[in-house]
Design brief:
The chain is mainly alpha-helical. It folds into two domains: 122 residues, no CATH class; 202 residues, MetI-like (MetI-like fold), CATH 1.10.3720.10. Helices cover 75% and strands 0% of the residues. It contains 13 helices and no strands. The longest helix has 38 residues. The chain is globular and about 85 Å long.
Length: 330
C-alpha cells in the first residue's frame, strides 16, 4: 500500500512539473505584455518598455529558455514573480486562494453530500416519482449555464430583501462582495456579515453540485443494486437498508471519490462566473483578469497552483480508494 501511494505521488509530481512548464511556455509565447504600452500618447521610449519588461521577466525579446530558467528558479525559491502591475504574485495568490476557499469549501461539501444522497435514494426508488423529480432537476440544472443560475439567485436575493424591508446598508442576504467594508474578520458582526455574503454564491455551487453528483451517483448505485454481493449480504441476514448502505453505497462511492477530489481542486478557478456576478475576488476572477492583461507570471502561477491542487486531490483520491476498496491495499 505504501509503495503504491509513493509511486503515485512521484508520478503526479512529475506531471505537475510537465503541466506547469508547458503552461508557462504557452503563456510566455502567446500572451503579449508589450501590448499594454502600445497606443499610448505620447508613446514610451522602447528602451524604457524593455527595461520594465526585463524587470518583470516578460520581455518577448529575451530568449524563452532564459525567461523560463529565471521563472523556474524563482518557483524553487518560493518566488512566483511580479504581476504586470508590478505587485507580488505570491501576495495575490495568498489573498485570493482564501477567498475562493471560503466560497468553494461550504458549497462543495454540502452540494456533494446532498448530491450523493439524492442520487443513491433516486436509484433505490427507480422509476418512482422521487426518481423522476431528481432526474428532471438534474437535467434542468446541468443544461442551464452557471451564469444564468447565479443571476437568478442574485435577483431572488434582491427581491427577498425588498420584500422583507431590507433596503438600507443592512440586508438579510448580500449580493455583492464577501464582507461589508470596515468590519473586523473575527468579530461577531464580521462573522455574521460574511455568512450573509456567503449564502447566495454558496447556493449556486450547491445547486450545480447536487445535479452533477446526483446523476453520477444514481448511475453508480444502479450498477451495484443487482450485484451478487448484495444478494449474499441479504441471505446472511442483513436488512435491505443496512445491506444497501454498508455494501451497495460503499461500492458505488468508489468512483465518486475521484470525481469529488478532482472537481474540488478545479473549482478554485472554475467558479469564475459565480465570483464575477457576486463580486468575490478569488482565483477564478484572477485567472481571467490575468489572461486579459497579458500577465504571463500570474497565468503561470495560477496554473501551478491548480496543478498542485490536482496533485493533492489525486493523492487523496487514492487514499479514499484504498479505504473504500480493500483490493487496492494489496
Amino acid at each position: 500500500m505504501t509503495t503504491f501511494l509513493l509511486r503515485r505521488f512521484a508520478y503526479t509530481v512529475l506531471l505537475v512539473i510537465v503541466a506547469t512548464s508547458v503552461a508557462y511556455v504557452l503563456a510566455a509565447t502567446q500572451l503579449n505584455p508589450r501590448a499594454r504600452y502600445e497606443g499610448r500618447n505620447p508613446p514610451p521610449p522602447p528602451e524604457v518598455v524593455d527595461a520594465v519588461l526585463n524587470d518583470l521577466n516578460m520581455n518577448d525579446r529575451t530568449p524563452l529558455a532564459e525567461r523560463y530558467t529565471r521563472w523556474a528558479g524563482g518557483v524553487v525559491r518560493g518566488d512566483l514573480g511580479r504581476t504586470v502591475d508590478n505587485t507580488s504574485v505570491d501576495e495575490e495568490i495568498g489573498r485570493r486562494m482564501w477567498v475562493s476557499l471560503r466560497l468553494v469549501l461550504l458549497g462543495a461539501l454540502i452540494g456533494t453530500t446532498l448530491g450523493v444522497a439524492a442520487g443513491a435514494f433516486s436509484a433505490v426508488k427507480q422509476h418512482r416519482p422521487v426518481d423522476h423529480f431528481v432526474t428532471v432537476f438534474s437535467f434542468v440544472v446541468l443544461s442551464t449555464p452557471v451564469v444564468v443560475i447565479a443571476v437568478l439567485y442574485k435577483n431572488a436575493g434582491i427581491a427577498l430583501n425588498d420584500a422583507l424591508g431590507f433596503t438600507g446598508d443592512v440586508k438579510l442576504l448580500y449580493t455583492t462582495g464577501e464582507i461589508t467594508p470596515g468590519l473586523e474578520f473575527w468579530s461577531r458582526e464580521g462573522l455574521l456579515d460574511r455568512a450573509a455574503h456567503l449564502v447566495l454564491p454558496s447556493f449556486v455551487l450547491i445547486t450545480t453540485a447536487i445535479a452533477f453528483y446526483g446523476r453520477y451517483q444514481r448511475n453508480a448505485m444502479l450498477d451495484v443494486l443487482g450485484s451478487d454481493f448484495l444478494r449474499t449480504a441479504r441471505a446472511k441476514g442483513l436488512s435491505r437498508s443496512r445491506a444497501l448502505i454498508k455494501h451497495g453505497l460503499r461500492t458505488a462511492l468508489i468512483p465518486m471519490a475521484t470525481f469529488f477530489a478532482y472537481q474540488f481542486a478545479l473549482l478554485f478557478v472554475g467558479a469564475t462566473f459565480t465570483e464575477r456576478i457576486f463580486g468575490w475576488h478569488g482565483m477564478g476572477e484572477y485567472f481571467v483578469d490575468s489572461i486579459i492583461k497579458n500577465d504571463v507570471n500570474s497565468v503561470a502561477a495560477v496554473t501551478l497552483f491548480v496543478a498542485v491542487l490536482v496533485l493533492i486531490a489525486g493523492f487523496l483520491a487514492d487514499l479514499a480508494y484504498a479505504l473504500l476498496d480493500p483490493r487496492v491495499r494489496t
